[in-house]
Every structure is written in C-alpha cells, then in structure tokens.
Amino acid sequence: MKTLSVIILFLGMSTWTFAQKQITLLVKENTVPCEGVAPMDCLQVKEGTAKTWSNFYTAIKGFNYKPGYQYKLTVIKKKLTGPLPADASAYSYQLKKI
Questions:
Q1: DSSP string, 16-66
Q2: Which of 89, 75, 79 has the alpha carbon at shortest distance from 23?
Q3: How many CB atoms lie within 10 A of CB 59?
Q4: What is the reported pTM?
Q5: Which of 68, 61, 62 is nearest to 28 (CA)?
Q6: Residue 10 in contact with residue 68, Cβ under 8 Å?
Q7: How far is 28 from 95, CA to CA, in rounded Å?
Q8: CB contact set of 96 (below 8 Å; sequence gap of 6+)
C-alpha cells in the first residue's frame, strides 16, 4: 500500500512538472501591428537562444510592458488542459523575474 502511494505521488508530481517550465524571454522595446482574433499590437520576443524576433499574441500575467525598454524576463510557461477555443493560446505565461 505504501509503494502504491509513492507511485501515485510521483505520477502526480511528474504531470505537474511536465505541464510547466521556466523559460527566458527577451522582449523588444517596441510592439508591432499584428492580426490575432482582431487587429492588435504584439510584443516581439525571442525565446531562449532564438535568433529572430517573433510575435507574441498573449499576455504575461504580472508583466506591465512599457514601450522604449527592452526586457529580459524569466517566465513560467504552463500548458493549458481541457478544450480550448481555436484562437486561444495552448499556454499561459506568468512573470517570475525581470
């Protein structure tokens, strides 16, 4: 019985760990016009060691972007579960450190 409890605990922790990870995002000092569900302004980001900027269509909880500043962020990227709208991100992002 004790072994079964340890296995269940391990599987639960593994699922939680694999569903989220810590990443580094470099945020460009200006936004660009982009098209999501509707026209909007997107942050431009480089994730990890990426060489090129890409549009970032979703929000980062806890991050207050101000134009004119380049940011290096540590962010928790979490995979969302369950049915998601077709136009929604499969991930949520939470600021950990600027």
A1: HHHHEEEEEEEE-SS-EEEESSSEEEEEEEEETT-SS-EEE-S--BT----
A2: 75
A3: 12
A4: 0.76
A5: 68
A6: no
A7: 16
A8: 22, 73, 74, 75, 76
3-state secondary structure of 80: coil
66 HSE (CA, 13 A, CB side)? 2
Residue given tokens 């991930």 in the structure block: 91
Maximum distance among all Cα pairs of the chain, rounded to whole angstroms:
59
Give the tens place of pLDDT for each residue, 24-63.
999 999 999 999 888 999 999 999 899 999 999 999 999 9
Beta bridge partners of 91: 79
Q: What are the φ and ψ backbone dihedral angles of 39, each rounded to 5 degrees?
A: -60, 140
With tokens 């391990």, the residue in question is 10
* Six-digit token string for 41: 């302004």
